[in-house]
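Chain A, query sequence.
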Amino acid sequence: MAHFKKFLSQLVEPAEGQGSSLANLIFDIFIIFCILLSCTLVVIEFFHPDSVDYFFPVEAGLTAIFTAEYIARWYLAPHRLRYPFQWLSLVDLFALLPSILLIVSDVFFVRIARTFRVFRLLRLLRLMRLVRLIRFSGLIYRFYLYTRVRITAFGYRHRARPLAVLFLFAVAVWIFGANLLYITESGSTDNLSPFAEYWESYWNIIIVLMSGIEDKEPVSVLGRIEISLMLILGIVIVGYLTGEIVSLLVQKWQRANLVALMPPRSNLKNHIVILGINERLTNVVKQVDAALEGACFFLIVDEKADTLMAMAPPLRQKVFALVGNPSEKNVLDMARIDDAARIVVLSGTAGDTETSQDIDNRALTVTLAACLRDRERHIPTTVEIVDKSNLNYAKHLLNVDYVVGQQFGERLISQCVRHPGVSEIYHELFTFTDESNEIYFIQVPKKLIGKTVKEAQLFFLQYEKAPITLLAIQVIHEDCGSQTLWCCQESVRQRFLEGTETLMVLALKYPKLSRGEQDLFDGTYLARH
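Chain A, predicted structure.
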């Protein structure tokens, strides 16, 4: 039963769900498709009443899908008694009832019920399913934003706007020239001019504009003057088009392996703004994208942002660069920082003569500029700092998480982006002071050798001298030199402890019951099982 509930939770997001997996995304798209298909059937049945019998099995199948979805959401709801009275649940129910009543009427009354106007009205009420799209408004908005940004980026990269202006100019010259030559040449003797016929003048003017006069020569002197002007305009159009194509090919060749530049009119919203670049940028983007489940675009702002190498798909399509000093107001305006979902400030790359103080000063200056620019929304900001002593100069900034250190910086930054304020938790857990709990590694006490992990947990909980919490068991594999960290979860609680193993505990002071010397947690990366 637990596995079935876990499967449903991955497939169907509850009304108060906190995120979406790939399976949930596919299921939501499927439900949206079913809603649109059902509403399409309503329109077809309204204009073609004879088609009701043909679409009855399809409508019954869609109703079964919607009913199963409603029951699944109800089953997964945290508060099942209150779920039917929530706004979205009422919308789902009222959108479902007309179809259920129609199916029941078809089963019990067969064709008789279809003659009543009230049941015809019920068929139209099925259009209420369109209101259900409110539930998927977040997904629809993400799709709209992604499509708009991708189309804008495509147009910017391929110079769609200049080419569109050139095309409209060429069409205007074509129409104007065809009518002008027709008016001038329509009164020529014996209609010998190639522009004497109205529709032929449209065809002949294209030849003049694209390839030259050839045998399309006007008869009158005024017509020859006009065709000469058309010929000059044709040379300008073809020359400008050739220059645009060559410039486009050169630009694509130069930026083939570089991050795409942000389109001027992209109108990014709910994106991640990264101010500054360093050698950890790629890992930061990967970690933040994984933490946010790939839901946001990234905008990297730096004076050297146009030199960044493009990232591997699918990040290649979601990362843009903006060239400029991230501490300047106009650059932050172009980055649309007011519409950003999160802000990340990287410490930057150290120069030959720069110290950690210089690097942190630059990062804190950028942070201050971003916070002053964002006065209304107070967007959650994560700042990477090299030296923790420099935090004393930035404590007055609100809604800012600071990450000190580089070994685990990418992972901590991604967690702070996902959960603003979590840096305080890391500070309390990993700061070694006399007033806070610390993480220690101790050898298995003699009393616990041969005991299960569950018994060891109870032993530490009942330890009277100091509160101790058993977090994990560290096992060192002498044959290969690697080590494994077994977290104390349900599947490990029946495991027996050995004397060669090490325990990871959380305590106020170093436990005196250990047989080994004091060993503080030093941040060594361990595989988690």
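The chain has four domains: 2-142, 160-254, 267-430, 438-528. The longest strand covers residues 468-477.
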